[in-house]
Amino acid sequence: MTQRIEDYALIGDLQTAALVGRNGSIDWLCLPRFDSAACFAALLGDEENGHWRIAPAGAGDCTRRGYLGETLVLESVWETPAGTVKVIDFMPQRDVAPDIVRIIEGVSGSVEMNATLRLRFDFGSVVPWMRREEGHRLAIAGPDSIWLRSEPAVKTWGQHFSTRSSFTVGAGERVAFVLTWHPSHEERPPLTDPFEALAQCLEDWAIWSARCRYEGPNRAAVMRSLITLKALTYGPTGGIVAAPTTSLPEELGGVRNWDYRYCWLRDSTLTLGALLSVGYLEEAAAWRDWLLRAVAGDPADLQIMYGLAGERRLPESELSWLSGYAGSSPVRTGNSAVDQLQLDVYGEVIDSFHVSRTSGLPPKPHAWSLELTLLSFLESKWREPDEGLWEVRGPRRHFVHSKVMAWVAADRAVRTLERNPHFSGKADRWRAMRDEVHREVCERGYDPERNTFTQSYGSTELDAATLLIPRVGFLPADDPRVVGTIDAVRAELSQDGLLRRYSTTGPGVDGLPGEEGAFLVCSFWLADALHLTGRTEEAKELFERLLALRNDVGLLSEEYDPVARRQLGNFPQAFSHIGLVVTALTLAGEHTAG
User: Fold this and answer.
1) Is 205's pLDDT higher than 60?
2) How far, in Å, CA of 284 to CA of 305, rounded?
């Protein structure tokens, strides 16, 4: 049976990540980077598309599992009639090549274990040539090479284009498997000692987690979300991927399946604010610097997302040989939304640099000149319609959130010049733009009869993104129009108390068929807005409910289906975990950046 999305846990090495099911199967792994082709793609097809399962013979899902302390080292425990055994899964931070280490440890009794490795390169489409070499298993196909070894040595054999093994562990005994990738034209990298790697990995994560300065309510949940965000960071560049997966559906059986293995500018301000608020200045600086490199160039060419190192070409294609998660097709790689016009990203980028400047990050001399260039371009474009925050694939509209973020761009420029009068720039010019945008949004994006801001000019549809109006400072939280918007969005977009982004039952706003679940970050925004307008108890109740939606190891996907009561969308989702951290800090009165 297909594992539910929430049945998976995450392991990673800060350059890629794998999903491990409750049944002991690794069903998703892209090597050597987040955005590389997968060698395990059973998540989006079936076992023949690649997976690696280690579990007691005849057993199903593990009895219990969890991360070891504040780390990304996963421990899964099976209690069987013959005894108890645990499997420890992790990816050490790489020196040369990426490794997956799986350590099987007997706890009591004597347990027979089975292991099945099916390697399928290029998203499950290529069966590699397998052979023995130097006492190890070696798989090669095209540019990819993977070595499998065990310590102590375990007998393996080939069967139905897979590598099998069977062995028994008693109390106190340990068997380790190490899977290592490298380019097929290069020599095998140095061997990894699995037990030393475990000790080092635990130490590395413990040191990193100890840097968190947040000690308020729900610290464990905040810490797990921060660890997840760190795990979604591409270490060499500092870019943070939206998720490590592609095409996990927003509707089971539907077509809303997108590739999220890239870095979105829309996440930048909230990410920076969260990292800075809890003391992760190094990570915040790396993200800020990635942002500076990615957006450098002609402001007319600013994209809404980039690759891990700032790559611009992310062509979208469909993988016809994969049936999709739970039959949800097509499976896509790349993302054509990269070519959309989303005016809000200019505001996000400028706000991010403003947050960086006011929060004590070391200044970058060229950042301000880049901001002025972006702002000058936005000054000439903000009156145009765009595809908006949610990347609609329908016609362009005058989205209210996009205009609000244009106001943010001008506002942050004015505030920067007021605070730094020696900076070049004309405050009066940006002040005039700020006032004009504000006036137009309040006139054309507000419905006085319903006392709410709408999704776009002239529309009756609502948008959860308008909940950000008080957070970004466009209007004060006690403004009746803000309170009215919160109430209207809550009434019209609520699905069993959780929020959808917008209505998908209207006149084809996003140009796509089907429905989607409640968008989790929007529900965190609602909790923030309720708190800002003095309804803190309601905000806390909603936050506690959102915390309860996390899976057993504390992870959240992009969306949640309140009817089927299961997670939907790419997993784990950075935006959801950023929302969790920001709301926790907001309720604790500790979110000072942003």
Assistant:
1) yes
2) 18
